[in-house]
Every structure is written in structure tokens, then in C-alpha cells.
Structure to design on (248 residues):
């Protein structure tokens, strides 16, 4: 039985959906009947995803920090599916490991553009798309780094995730009561963005030790939270951020 019938014949726009958390959300929403529009810079993985259900999945190689590319891809997707019902603002990068003094302007601009500017631009195309439907929802990927400061050397990343948190709170007020807006703040999740941790057993053990649930998380566990936040089961929830962090 489909416990989330709200996704049938609806369309979800997912950025950074070729791998990790975005890919896990794509898989779950596809299984629940949604059409998908997925943007990423990884062409090969996008094609693998599209091949699963070409009649229900539109993919495009889009760098979300490029506003013109985002607007062009949105036009194509809207022409096909008639608008969007759900948005996962998920594409993100940690950036190069640097102290605040080492951080050059080009690297700072890159992290701000991918993790933060894109969230404004993609939300704008999502909201501008035609949709007469009720129950639209946005989920943004923040991080527990927004309150812990993250790893030393990722100050730009932590700052963008704090801003995504504030963006979520402010946009939820702006769009109420028509569109719900929430965030998820994952802890350490087994995806490529964390490959430095997950390729080193001693780092995995050290991380797990400081997490109350004593293990690192999976993309599937974060995706389950996203599905709930998009679904009618969370119809009275907006403007919050949920930690998916094993209690850290
Ligand atoms: N994995 C974690 O521990 C963790 C923790 C907290 C927050 N997050 C956040 O979750 C989100 C997803 O990360 P993930 O863990 O799945 O990592 P991931 O590296 O597996 O996935 C990120 C995806 O974003 C895509 N991407 C990167 N730059 C892009 C760009 N300019 N345009 C379009 N796509 C781009 C990548 O190709 C990749 O498919 C990120 O915003 C990340 O900051 C992850």
C-alpha cells in the first residue's frame, strides 16, 4: 500500500540528485509515483537515473550556480510536466579545506554560489512555474554545521548552511499558507561529500564515538525524512529544520 498517495502525478524538482542524499530522495519519490526533474553536473549518473523510467524522469546537466542555465532548464521541464510540486534544494559542495586567512575570493564565491545563491535562484524558478495545485513544499539541505561550525577548515561551508537555515525560516513565513518550507540538517552521512571520512576506518570510529546513536548515517535515512516533509503527513509543519544526525 502506498502510504503517501499525495505523490502520484506530482512533479519533484531535485538539485544534485545524481548521487548521495538527492539520489536517495529521487528513488523514494519515484517509487511513490512522482515525476522527477533532476539537475546535476554528473552527466553519467544522471543518465543512469533517467534510464530507470524515461517516461517519468527529466534530467539535465545543470550547474546550479549558473542562473541562466537554471532558468533554461526550468523552461524545458515545465513544458514537459506543467510545473513543479516539490523542490529539494540539495546540490552542495564542502569546498577546499582552508582557514579563513587562506580562503581566496574565487573559492569563497564558488562555495557561496553553489550552496547558497543556487537556493535563491532555484526556489525562484520553482515558485514562478505555473501550478494551480495545493500542497506544494520545499525542503532545503542545511547541516548540523550551521550550529557546530563544522570541521575546522570548512568555514565557508558552515556559513552557507547557517544561511540556508535562515532562508528556510524566512521563506516559510513569506510563502505561508500556500507553500510549506522546511530544512534538514544532517550530521555525518555516508555519501561522496564525506569520502575523506568514509575511506578511513579510524575516522569513522572517531566520528561514531561522539554521536549518541554511535554510528554514522545513511542517505536513505535522510531521504525518509525528506519524504515525510514533502508529504501531507507533515501538513502542519513549516519553517523548521530537522536534525538527522544520530542525536549529535
Ligand atoms: N553527507 C553529509 O554528511 C551531509 C551532511 C550535512 C549536509 N549535507 C548536505 O547534503 C547535500 C547533498 O550532499 P550529499 O551528502 O548527498 O553529497 P554528494 O556529493 O553525494 O551529492 C551532492 C550532489 O550535488 C552535485 N553537485 C555539486 N555541485 C553542483 C552544482 N554546481 N550544480 C549541480 N549539482 C552539483 C554533485 O554532482 C552530487 O551529485 C549537500 O547540500 C550537503 O551539504 C550532507
Amino acid at each position: 500500500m502506498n502510504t503517501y498517495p499525495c505523490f502520484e502525478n506530482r512533479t519533484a524538482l531535485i538539485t544534485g540528485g545524481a548521487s548521495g542524499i538527492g539520489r536517495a530522495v529521487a528513488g523514494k519519490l519515484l517509487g511513490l509515483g512522482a515525476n522527477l526533474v533532476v539537475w546535476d553536473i554528473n552527466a553519467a549518473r544522471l543518465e543512469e537515473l533517467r534510464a530507470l523510467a524515461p517516461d517519468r524522469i527529466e534530467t539535465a546537466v545543470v550547474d546550479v550556480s549558473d542562473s541562466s542555465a537554471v532558468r533554461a532548464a526550468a523552461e524545458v521541464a515545465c513544458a514537459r510536466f506543467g510545473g513543479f510540486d516539490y523542490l529539494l534544494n540539495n546540490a552542495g559542495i564542502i569546498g577546499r579545506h582552508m582557514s579563513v586567512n587562506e580562503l581566496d575570493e574565487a573559492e569563497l564565491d564558488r562555495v557561496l554560489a553553489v550552496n547558497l545563491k543556487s537556493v535563491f535562484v532555484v526556489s525562484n524558478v520553482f515558485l514562478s512555474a505555473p501550478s494551480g495545485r495545493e500542497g506544494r513544499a520545499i525542503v532545503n539541505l542545511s547541516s548540523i554545521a550551521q550550529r557546530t561550525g563544522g570541521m575546522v577548515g570548512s568555514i565557508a561551508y558552515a556559513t552557507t548552511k547557517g544561511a540556508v537555515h535562515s532562508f528556510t525560516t524566512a521563506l516559510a513565513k513569506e510563502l505561508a499558507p500556500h507553500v510549506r518550507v522546511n530544512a534538514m540538517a544532517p550530521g555525518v552521512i555516508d555519501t561522496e561529500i564525506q569520502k575523506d571520512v568514509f575511506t578511513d576506518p579510524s575516522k569513522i570510529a572517531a566520528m561514531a564515538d561522539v554521536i549518541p546513536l554511535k554510528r554514522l548515517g545513511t542517505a536513505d535515512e535522510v531521504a525518509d525524512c525528506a519524504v515525510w516533509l514533502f508529504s501531507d503527513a507533515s501538513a502542519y509543519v513549516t519553517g523548521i529544520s530537522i536534525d538527522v544526525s544520530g542525536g549529535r
Remarks:
- The longest strand covers residues 179-186.
- The pocket of nicotinamide-adenine-dinucleotide is lined by residues 15-16, 18-22, 39-42, 63-65, 90-93, 114, 141, 143, 186, 188-189, 191-194 (CB under 6 Å).
- Residues 5-191+218-243 form a domain with the Rossmann fold fold (CATH 3.40.50.720).
